[in-house]
Design a protein that fits this description.
single chain, about 325 residues, alpha/beta, 8-stranded mixed beta sheet, 3-stranded mixed beta sheet, 12 helices
Length: about 325
Amino acid sequence: MILIVNIMKALLFLQTLIYNCNLIISRLLLKFKSTNLKTSENNNNEILYLTYNKKKFVFPKRNQSKYNLQSFDDLRNTLAVVLNKKTPSNFIDIGAYIGIYTFIVNEIYKDLEKRINLYSFEPTKYAFELLNKNKVDDNKHALFNHGIFNENKIAYISAPSVYYSNSLKQHLKKNSKSMKSLNEKGGIDSEKIQLMKIDEILEKQVIEDSYVKIDVEGSEVEILKYLDKKNLYPQIISAELNNHYLYKRNLTIEKIFNKEIQKIYSFYIVVNENDKKKFLKKISLFELQKIIMLGNKNNFIKKYIFPKVFAIDIYLIRE
């Protein structure tokens, strides 16, 4: 098993080099072709809304394909499966964007006839304005117009100028405001934001009796490591792991989740096999590393030599 793990690490390191070489070539070709990826602000600010369970939810017109009744039902089914394991008293949304997670979590808790306190952190001005429109309830939903990080500081975030994926490049032209990252240098639509430590805002008992969702376009690792450093272990943590950022920083799963975290949490992914109901599948870090490296493709050589952007939601649950 140790030999297999070492081989996997070597393969991942080589794939990281391949990915970054492809990325550099893509950037050079982009400059050579003089392709302009800057987004226009002409009519992209139009706001639409949908009604879900008799409640109104607003969203940008450019995200119309993402926000529909089916996507709300899908997210609700996913979160219901996770919250069936534990139902903490608080939900902390780090990287809230316009607030779909707090909206859905609140609906789930209403069905459970249990109160939930909601905390949303969104640093960008545009998204925060819409988040405020989607606020669930003044008495139980607190909004913060800053980000969470491992230190207090003023920073700049921007959307990446190049993904090694044509589909994401096209998506980026329309939706750069929802793809901004702290870890992108030379990106587009740069914005100045405030970052703060979570334990200077929320009390330890609130954090530990929480489901903490982290989706911050590449800065998940810093937040996870900070929580561990401060011995802050929520009941549930979900984080999006995106190989674009892992490859750029040469991060393995073991570098993200140390032995202490592995002792405290079990790791899960949500799956929906053969059109059956969604369920939680327990997963080892080795399996998780394999998924991130190869995605769901069967063609090993093609996937390995031409790694594409792949993201997966991982759920850490205290047993």
